[in-house]
Amino acid sequence: MTTTVAAPVASGAPAAKAKVHRSWTQHGLLFVAPFLLVYVAFLVWPTLLGLRMSFSSVNIAGTNDRMVGFANYAEAFGDPRMWRSLWNTLVFTALSTVPLVLLGLLFALLVHNLRFMQWLWRLSFFGPFLLPSAVVAVLWLQMIYPPEYGLINGTLGTDVLWLGDPGVAMWSMVLTTVWWTVGFNFLLYLAALQSIPQHLYEAAAIDGATGWDKLRSITLPMLSRTTALIVVLQLLASLKVFDQIYLMTGGGPEDSTRPIIEYAYDVGFTGYRIGYASAVSYILFVIIVVVSLVQLRLFRKREEVAS
């Protein structure tokens, strides 16, 4: 005769699990508390404060702080200089994003397939990205762009005013930016290339695939997520351009290179209109959010179609 003994029911198990979960939650909050404090103090709070300022007439001294509703936004939408600076920003973004993505991919493919002195090529392509904006500005102002003795005019035998001609200045800023920042995209692509399984190329070689076939059917599809990330990051970085243009041209000549962030800086810290500058900044903020969401949605749809 077999006797079955029922296992005791641990009635306190759910309560114990809940207590352990609360304990882990409390410890986790304590662990991230320093970062959260810094995040709130230097990002969340300034963002909310700037939004409030955009609806006021406050000046740089903090006086005349009265609410004016949407008057700053209405003035901004009717301001031709704001529209000119926004157009300059969009033109710079369109001209710089494509070469920065394509050159980053090209340089990564070249270095990935080299079999000698890879460290030198990596340093050569990534090195300029480590330079501060002030160093880049001085280097190009003093050595590359001077019309009398600059490297470009001296090599080509021309006398182009690279930073003084309104029709050329924006192209000059794009050239400087591509040289300076392409190393970041190059590094992301190079890391992605090194993570592609080698057996895919070996299998393709057995099937008689050429180098172009491997690039088109294996490499580029495997880099699609990295490309999506780089495009989004590059669009955001280009829309927020400020440093090199402010240091090299100051927005000139004839406002032909002034981006919208520099315009907000000028009206806020030169014109002392912090409220109006905040409104201009939040117009750019909305544009950046919309561009980011559209890009992410487009890449997500593309991945769904591909799968």
Radius of gyration over all CA atoms, rounded:
27 Å
Total discrete domains: 2
CATH-wise, what's the superfamily of the largest domain? MetI-like
Order of helices and strands: HHHHHHHHHHHHH
CATH classification class of the largest domain: Mainly Alpha
What do you see in this structure?
The chain is mostly helical. The protein folds into two domains: 2-53, no CATH class; 79-306, MetI-like (MetI-like fold, Orthogonal Bundle), CATH 1.10.3720.10. Helix content is 72%, strand content 0%. The chain contains 13 helices and no strands. The protein has helices spanning 13-53, 71-77, 80-113, 118-126, 133-144, 151-156, 169-194, 198-206, 211-222, 224-239, 243-248, 260-270, 274-306. Helix 7 (169-194) runs antiparallel to helix 10 (224-239). The longest helix is centred in the N-terminal third of the chain and has 41 residues, at 13-53.
How would you summarize the topology of this molecule?
Layout: H1 13-53, H2 71-77, H3 80-113, H4 118-126, H5 133-144, H6 151-156, H7 169-194, H8 198-206, H9 211-222, H10 224-239, H11 243-248, H12 260-270, H13 274-306
Helix pairs in contact: 1-13, 2-13, 3-7, 3-10, 3-12, 7-10, 10-13, 12-13
